[in-house]
Amino acid sequence: MASIFSVCAATTSSALMMNLSS
Fold it and tell me: What is the C-alpha separation between 10 and 18, in angstroms, rounded?
């Protein structure tokens, strides 16, 4: 369960960073 949450958090943060960069 925790690993799934970690993956979701990492994906979300990386998508957010990409949006902020561009």
Answer: 12
